[in-house]
Every structure is written in C-alpha cells, then in structure tokens.
C-alpha cells in the first residue's frame, strides 16, 4: 500500500484513533477525551468535551512560543498604495484590545457579530476578536448589496455589526455605511451597535448607533481568550443554496482547527515561519480557512491582498507578490489565471520576477479547466494542484497531497480524496457507480472534522439539503466520476447553483428578484459558459400578457434590479425575452433541460463548463428549437 493509501485507510477505518493523533497539532486548554460522537440526528461531532480557543491557538500560542516578532500578516494594497507588516505580538494586542472594545458593547460568548469588511488587516482582527470572546462571527462579502446583507442580519441576529467606512475596487471607492444603514433598515432584527473602521479614502458619518473603531479601542481592556467547547460554533458563513434564502453554514471550533492544521502539512506542505498566500477574500470560505485561520494556526505569515490579479497595476501582480514576500504555497481560483492569461498570454511579465520561492500552486473554487491547467503547467516549474472543496466542508475534500506522497497530476482531476473523506459516486438508485461512470458525488458518514455541523437556525434544511437524498451520505451537489486509477473528476453542479468567477451563486435567488418585476410573468435563470468567469447567469423572461413596453428597457430594468438587490458580484448582465419556457406536464419549468440547451446538449446531460456556448446559442435554442418536442422527450 502506498503511504497515501495507508493514511487514507487509517482515517476511514479508525477515525477516532486517526483524529485523536491529529488533535495533538493544536494547543488545548482541556484535552478531549470524546473524539467522535453523534448528535440526535446521527451527524458527527468532533472533540465535544475538549476545550480550547482558536484565537489562542492561532495567535497567542505563537507569541508564547517565541514567534512574537515574526510577521503574522503582510498587508499589500496596491489599490490604496499601502503596505504593512504586523507581527504576531502586535496582532495579539490589536485583537485583545478590540475584543475588549466588543466586550464594552456587551458582546459575549455565543453572541453573533456580522462583519462587512474589505481586505484590510482589521477584517482579521475583527474575526479573531470574536473568536477570542467565543462570539460567533458571520462575515458577509463586500460585493453583496444591502438586501443580501439584510437577509443575513435578519437570520444571524447579531448584537453588533462591524464594518469599514469603505471598500476600494481597483479605482472605485465604495462607501459601506449607506449599505449597512440600508441593510439594517430592511432587516427586522436591529443590532445594538455598529463599529466602523474609518479609512482615509472615505470617512463615514457616524450616527447614534455607530462607534468609531479607533475610539472604541482607546480605553478598552485587554480581553483574555475565553475557553470554548470543541463543538461550540466559531462562525456562520452564508452560502448560496438552490432557493432564494442563503444557507448559514455553521462551523464548529476544534474540529475545524484540527482539520486546518492537518491540511497545512499534508496538502499545502508549509512549515511554521513560511509564507502562505491565498488570493481570495475573507468573505468566502477560502478566505476564512486559508487567509485567516489555517496559516496562523500553522505559525506561517499570511498575506492580506487588497487588489485584483490584473489591473493593479497589471497582470504581473501575483508574480510580484511571490517575489516580494517569498511565498512558498499559493492558492487562488482558476478564473484569476484566466484573467492573467487574457492580459498577458505569453506571461511576458513573469520574466521580470524571481519566483523561485514558490513550491506549489493550488487552485480551487471552480473546476480547473484543462486549458488553464496546461498553460500553468507549461509556464511554472512547480506542481499545479487542483483541489476540490465547498463552503460546507471548510477544507479540501480531494487534492494531491504533497505532504504525504505527491502524485502525478491529471488535467481535469482534483486527484484523490483527502484522508477522512470517504468520497463515493452513486447513481440515481443509490448504487455505487463503476470507474468512469458519472453520478452524484457523496461523502459517507461520518464526515471528518472541520465540516459543517448544521444550517444556522434550520436543522430541517440541513437534513433536507444534504442528508436526505442518500441516507448515510452527505450530498455534495456536484456530479463526477473516478477514473481507473482512482483519480476523482468533479464535473459541475447537479443543482441550480452556478459558479461565476469562483463565486457560488444561486440562480433561484436571481429568479426571485427577476420574477418580482411587475412586467414579468415567468422567468428562469441559467448559467452559460464564459471564457473568463467559467459561467455567467442569463435570465430568460416571459413578459405578462399585454406587455407593450420596450424589451430593451425591460431587460435593462431587470439587470439593474439584480445588481441592486443581490449585488455586482452576481454579474447578471444578460436577459432574453422569450416566447415560452419548457415545462413538465404539471407546469414546472424544466431547468435541467434549459441547462442542457445552454450547454449545447440535448436532454438531461449534466452540465460541464468545457462546452463552448454563447448567448446567441441560447437565443437560437430558445427561440427556434421545438420546445414542445423537447418537453415530450423528457417526459417519456
Ligand atoms: N466589493 C464590491 N464590489 C465588488 C467586490 C467587492 N469586494 N468584488 C467584486 N465586486 C464587483 C466588481 O467590481 C464587479 O463590478 P462591475 O460589474 O461594476 O465591474 C463585479 O462585482 C463582478 O466582480 P468579479 O466577478 O470579481 O469581476 P472582476 O471583473 O472585477 O474580476 C476576476 C474578475 C477574475 C479578476 C476576479 O473575479 C478574481 O480575481 N477572482 C478570483 C477568484 C476569487 O477570489 N475566488 C474566491 C473563491 S477562491
Ligand atoms: P463554494 O462553496 O463557494 O466554495 O463552492 C463550492 C463549489 O464550487 C463546489 O460544490 C463545486 O461545484 C465548485 N468547486 C470548487 N472547487 C472545485 C474544483 N477544484 N473542481 C471542480 N469544482 C469545484
């Protein structure tokens, strides 16, 4: 058996022994004796009687063990022409005093705190300060509009909202305060207070509910780390589901810390003191896990980058960062490299930089399409590692594992299941699919540490969304297959979730916004292939009988609506007015069929992003194809 197979089998066959060994990687206030237990719905719970604090493990512990003067964060912000280095000792103090400020506002263990911040070190300080107090943070990505923020505030019911005065998108300064105010106005739940970090690019005008960050910490006490149970929630992170309402993925504390610490060694192969860069945003799971918690738990230096892969100032931005900070492991989404390749196809800018510190490149967030894989593989002397994961799992389900045993890469494959994840492919009847046979990708219970422990405030949704389809298995929502060598290929979502520039979006949510327009009778939103962003949403709309307005005006109004209510990140820029949408006999819109048409396929085939298609194709398909015949074909 290979080293990988030994480790994988150990984790599957003796999970308690395996994970109790891995638990030694983090500092505990009280060692766990109960490694794996199950809740009343038979979902795995890890380290339930252990006590720890993840801020202590990620920051204070390193200061206490001689890393105080090491850089914890390099902040690099080409959009504001600023840079900063923050040592572990400085970070500990900033967190502890800010946590003291939060305590003054009444924040205690178990309270929720919503964070709406751009990529500045204070975003990490805010998250870690919550963790220090045992409060549950919920970070909302800055590209979401007030309505989306309101939905999350209403669901999480935070005591406090923490925000910056503005974000900066390349050359645009985006004031955040009006977004916060509007969101609180829209939400039925009103937080007690808002803390605003004032940035010099735009200062917000504060009202009665607001507290200035700097003033709050001035006379705040130094807050100590609060001991929490292993299973106490660390955060709630909302992600798109198939309905309009996002799901609040609940993450526990100790299982997450242990899983991340393990991953830094076996997947990302970094040692304490080395530099790790994840080019994402703290608003996404990749940011939570690999900008904030994992690099700091490992005693690495993490990079907080406020910029884009291109245009800040050019497509050499990532190469410059690798040289300047001597990055060893680098993680981003394939779309970022598609953007770089588009601007600099021969990678001329790379010649200006020495990137010899780089040992591995990791890609995730969407499928690593073979052309991008080959471009990178030809360009770089380091392994290009695709790995697959989701907000729900918190860390990679499948990867190449250089820290255990590097394996040859295969274009299009996320390589093999990470130890702890018993990944299987099931057909519609719940039978195991053979090699090369596509099916639903599922994970056999128990899920390893680090994975979601529930949907915030909605145990029923947790069960129905993930556990009900195949009893005993977690449904990932992705389709895929194993090849004959046991390599896993993830081909795309089997539900109405789409992936735009590595960002997960719900077409159902967009449909709710479009469908609420007074002139719209029916609509469907589907994802179509896009060279740069992987997929882009397109709205197909049937106007109400008697609609005599201008189609172009209606299209523009619908685009503006989605931007205002969901946010620019939805990238909803295309609408088609059509005569009819394919339906089942009972009148339900045949979304699967629409997806197949959009993919240039006939019926019922899972979508893949490799099939080139265009808006014109969809238009032709919708206007000219015999929708009736298609309906009939899917109903036999
Ligand atoms: N706050 C406010 N607006 C934001 C935002 C933020 N934090 N992030 C993005 N937006 C806006 C953008 O300005 C853009 O607005 P526009 O329609 O006015 O141009 C819109 O949302 C769409 O953003 P995006 O899809 O990111 O497109 P882009 O053209 O700005 O950048 C990429 C394209 C590929 C360079 C960029 O998406 C990228 O770097 N992606 C990396 C992937 C990533 O971070 N994945 C996270 C999971 S790993
Ligand atoms: P998110 O929860 O936003 O991280 O999105 C998770 C979804 O992104 C997964 O369910 C997949 O559909 C997709 N995804 C992420 N990483 C990969 C990958 N390496 N290969 C294929 N799909 C991926």
TrEMBL record:
Single GO molecular function: propionate-CoA ligase activity
GO cellular component, one term: intracellular organelle lumen
Domain AMP-binding enzyme C-terminal: 509-588
AMP-dependent synthetase/ligase domain ranges (all copies): 69-446
SUPFAM superfamilies on file: Acetyl-CoA synthetase-like
Domain Acetyl-coenzyme A synthetase N-terminal: 4-58
Classification via CDD domains: PrpE (cd05967)
InterPro entries linked to this entry: ACAS_N, AMP-bd_C, AMP-bd_C_sf, AMP-binding_CS, AMP-dep_synth/lig_dom, ANL_N_sf
Matching Pfam families: ACAS_N, AMP-binding, AMP-binding_C
PROSITE patterns: AMP_BINDING (PS00455)
Entry's family note: Belongs to the ATP-dependent AMP-binding enzyme family.
The protein, known as: Propionyl-CoA synthetase
């Amino acid at each position: 058996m290979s080293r990988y197979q030994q480790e994988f089998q150990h984790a599957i066959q003796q999970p308690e022994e395996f994970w109790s060994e891995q638990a030694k990687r983090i500092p505990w206030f009280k060692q766990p004796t109960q490694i794996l237990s199950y809740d009343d719905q038979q979902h795995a719970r890890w380290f339930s009687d252990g006590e720890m604090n993840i801020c202590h493990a990620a920051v204070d512990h390193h200061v206490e063990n001689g890393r105080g003067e090491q850089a914890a964060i390099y902040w690099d912000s080409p959009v504001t022409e600023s840079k900063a280095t923050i040592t572990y000792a400085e970070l500990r103090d900033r967190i502890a005093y800010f946590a003291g400020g939060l305590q003054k506002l009444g924040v205690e263990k178990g309270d929720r705190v919503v964070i709406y911040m751009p990529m500045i070190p204070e975003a990490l300080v805010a998250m870690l300060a919550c963790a220090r107090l045992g409060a549950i943070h919920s970070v909302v990505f800055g590209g979401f509009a007030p309505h989306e923020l309101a939905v999350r505030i209403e669901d999480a019911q935070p005591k406090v909202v923490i925000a910056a005065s503005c974000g900066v998108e390349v050359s645009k300064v985006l004031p955040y305060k009006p977004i916060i105010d509007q969101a609180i106005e829209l939400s039925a739940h009103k937080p007690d207070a808002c803390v605003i970090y004032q940035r010099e690019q735009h200062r917000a005008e504060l009202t009665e509910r607001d507290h200035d960050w700097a003033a709050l910490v001035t006379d705040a006490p130094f807050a100590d780390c609060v001991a929490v149970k292993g299973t106490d929630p660390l955060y709630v992170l909302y992600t798109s589901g198939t309905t309009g309402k996002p799901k609040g993925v609940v993450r526990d504390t100790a299982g997450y810390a242990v899983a991340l610490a393990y991953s830094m060694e076996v997947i990302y192969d970094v040692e304490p003191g080395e530099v790790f860069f994840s080019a994402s945003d703290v608003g996404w799971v990749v940011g939570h896990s690999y900008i904030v918690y994992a690099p700091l738990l490992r005693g690495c230096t993490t990079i907080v980058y406020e910029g884009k892969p291109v245009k800040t100032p050019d497509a050499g931005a990532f190469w410059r960062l690798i040289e300047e900070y001597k990055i060893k492991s680098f993680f981003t989404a394939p779309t970022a490299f598609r953007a770089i390749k588009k601007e600099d196809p021969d990678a001329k800018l790379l010649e200006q930089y020495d990137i010899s510190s780089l040992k591995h490149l990791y890609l995730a967030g969407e499928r690593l399409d073979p052309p991008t894989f080959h471009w990178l593989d030809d360009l770089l002397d380091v392994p290009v590692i695709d790995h697959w994961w989701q907000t729900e799992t918190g860390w990679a389900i499948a990867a190449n594992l250089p820290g255990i045993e590097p394996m040859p890469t295969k274009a299009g494959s996320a390589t093999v299941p990470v130890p702890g994840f018993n990944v299987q492919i099931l057909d519609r009847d719940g039978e195991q699919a053979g090699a090369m046979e596509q099916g639903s990708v599922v994970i056999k219970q128990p899920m390893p540490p680090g994975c979601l422990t529930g949907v915030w405030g909605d145990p029923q949704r947790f069960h129905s969304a993930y556990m009900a389809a195949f009893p005993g298995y977690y449904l990932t929502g992705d389709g895929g297959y194993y090849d004959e060598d046991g390599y896993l290929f993830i081909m795309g979502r089997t539900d109405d979730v789409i992936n735009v520039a590595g960002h997960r979006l719900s077409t159902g949510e967009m449909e709710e916004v479009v469908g609420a327009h007074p002139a719209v009778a029916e609509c469907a939103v589907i994802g179509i292939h896009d060279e740069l962003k992987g997929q882009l949403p397109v709205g197909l709309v049937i106007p109400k009988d008697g609609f005599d307005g201008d189609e172009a005006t209606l299209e523009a109004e619908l685009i503006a609506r989605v931007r205002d209510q969901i946010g620019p990140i939805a990238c909803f820029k295309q609408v088609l007015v059509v005569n009819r949408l394919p339906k089942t006999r009972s009148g339900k819109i045949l979304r699967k069929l629409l997806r197949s048409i959009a993919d240039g396929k006939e019926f019922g085939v899972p979508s893949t992003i490799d099939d080139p298609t265009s808006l014109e194709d969809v238009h032709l398909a919708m206007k000219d194809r015999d929708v009736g015949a298609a309906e009939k074909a899917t109903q036999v």
